[in-house]
Amino acid sequence: MEIRSGANPRDVKLYDTERLRNDFLIQDTFVVDEIKTVYSQIDRIIAGTATPVSKTLLLEAGDELRAKYFLERREMGVINLGGTGTLTLDGQAYTLKYRDGIYVGMGTKVISFKSEDGKTPAKFYFNSAPAHMTYPTVFIDPNKDIKPENKLELGTLEDANHRILRKYILPGQVESCQLEMGITSLEPGSVWNTMPCHTHDRRMEVYLYFEVPENALVFHYMGEPSETRHIIMRNEEAVISPSWSIHSASATHAYSFVWGMVGENQAFDDMDAVQMKDLK
């Protein structure tokens, strides 16, 4: 497990490109027949991937968590971004096709990942956060299980930000201790997300960008509103966003991203809006 430390905005504004990428960007996410995990000390979130091709992969705690098993004190959300695969939780198997998700409650001991066909492997992406109680494990088919109020059409083509936001895990949809997850997809011709932008001091986020064409780029914007920076990202790369930072992007092509939030509360609309005129 890779450990990433916290970040002070007074220091970050002095970072060069290499330091920004080293501290916040997560690359080489989906590695064949491996589980990859990055532990951020910002609200203790873990962003991870499992890419089973020729074998079944078992998720273990490792020495870093000082736990008997991965979810001894944690909860987890998983979304499949590849071919059909099987997630087995304490002997109970769940089949996840592309974009299917699942919430896994604290206390689940044995977690394994397997692809239906190694030629088109599953790509399991997960976020995990500390938990204080056990909520039920819930399977999420985005085409059937997301309530109408949790599928939002936002923005306009004229503003280049026409997008569909699907909330997978949050109060009223799938209960959790603190974790929230979902997917936002840009419609053809739109390239901006979360603009006008915002911060939220009570939560942090991790974004994983996907469905980015091979020769396309995503410009992820971060930093304090008065000290913005950018990180150039490519397909299936993730970025850590501290609570004091804006988190927005523009790209050379429409794209999608998984967002995961943890922190003080689960009020989705608890945001501190930033006026366009105040960005620098």
Automatic annotation (TrEMBL):
Role, per record: Catalyzes the isomerization of 5-dehydro-4-deoxy-D-glucuronate to 3-deoxy-D-glycero-2,5-hexodiulosonate.
Biological source species: [Clostridium] fimetarium
NCBIfam families (UniProt xref): PRK00924.1 (NF002091)
A molecular-function term among this protein's GO annotations: 4-deoxy-L-threo-5-hexosulose-uronate ketol-isomerase activity
Pathway: Glycan metabolism; pectin degradation; 2-dehydro-3-deoxy-D-gluconate from pectin: step 4/5
Name under which the protein is recorded: 4-deoxy-L-threo-5-hexosulose-uronate ketol-isomerase
One Pfam family here: KduI
Binding site for Zn(2+): 198, 200, 205, 247
Enzyme class: isomerase
Reactions that this protein is recorded to catalyse: 5-dehydro-4-deoxy-D-glucuronate = 3-deoxy-D-glycero-2,5-hexodiulosonate
GO BP, sorted A to Z: D-galacturonate catabolic process; D-glucuronate catabolic process; pectin catabolic process
Taxonomic lineage of the native organism: Bacteria, Bacillati, Bacillota, Clostridia, Lachnospirales
PANTHER family, alphabetized: 4-DEOXY-L-THREO-5-HEXOSULOSE-URONATE KETOL-ISOMERASE
EC nos: 5.3.1.17
InterPro entries: KduI (IPR007045), KduI/IolB_isomerase (IPR021120), KduI_N (IPR027449), RmlC-like_jellyroll (IPR014710), RmlC_Cupin_sf (IPR011051)
Keywords: Isomerase, Metal-binding, Zinc
CDD domains in alphabetical order: cupin_KduI_C (cd20491), cupin_KduI_N (cd20294)
Family, per entry: Belongs to the KduI family.
Coiled-coil zones: none
